[in-house]
Amino acid sequence: SKAIGIDPSNRSLIISSSDGARTTTVASLGTNESAVQVNQSPSDQVVGFSRTGETQTGFGREQIYLIGADGNDAGALVVEGGNFSAIWSPTGSHILYSVGEAANDYRASLWHVKGTGDVGSNRIRIDLETWVEKCTFFSTDTVYCAVPGEGVIQSGLSHYLVDAPDDVYRINTLTGQSYLVGSPVLDLQMDNLFVTADESDLYFTDQVGRLHEMRLN
Fold this sequence. Notes:
Layout (H helix, E strand, L loop, with lengths): L1 E3 L6 E6 L6 E6 L7 E3 L7 E5 L11 E7 L4 E7 L1 E8 L5 E8 L5 E8 L9 E3 L8 E5 L2 E7 L17 E7 L5 E5 L8 E5 L5 E5 L5 E5 L2
Antiparallel strand pairs: 1-2, 2-3, 4-5, 5-6, 6-7, 8-9, 9-10, 10-11, 12-13, 13-14, 14-15, 16-17, 17-18
């Protein structure tokens, strides 16, 4: 989490026990508090992302640092736009992230890359306009995403800019290929996706927080 003091010198990224009794400072945040996202990898080797990377050539590009649990640089991603957000694969070996793609009118753009070793390599662009907040890993190689039926210019800046109902897609992260699984019976916007262990059911919440179940087979 972040410990935010009034003075920038008292702002830090920390690791603590659930009761707050044991706290370790990972890194000082200073004035970069808003540029850091807390996002712990399943392997516990990475604890967050920082949009404080070096200036990149190319329209709209950003460099995103991975923050190691020891506070050191754990690699970096070069992304093609702003509003970066990410989720980890179950083992922490890969990262699925979305950005508002600068070269495509800041529409939502989804990417899959390595999260360990040669971080950022094997980058695959997935041809779906959606955000990682609407995706969930079923396995290291399989992702389910809710995708709006209609894209909107600058939608990558916030998924709240889109009010079209969602369809569900299954993605092979090794190839980037996706196919339509189906759609809810009702026209709904889907969040908080969760797939059961036998891949038979998808649970999700709608735009007002109600819980739904969707059969996958």
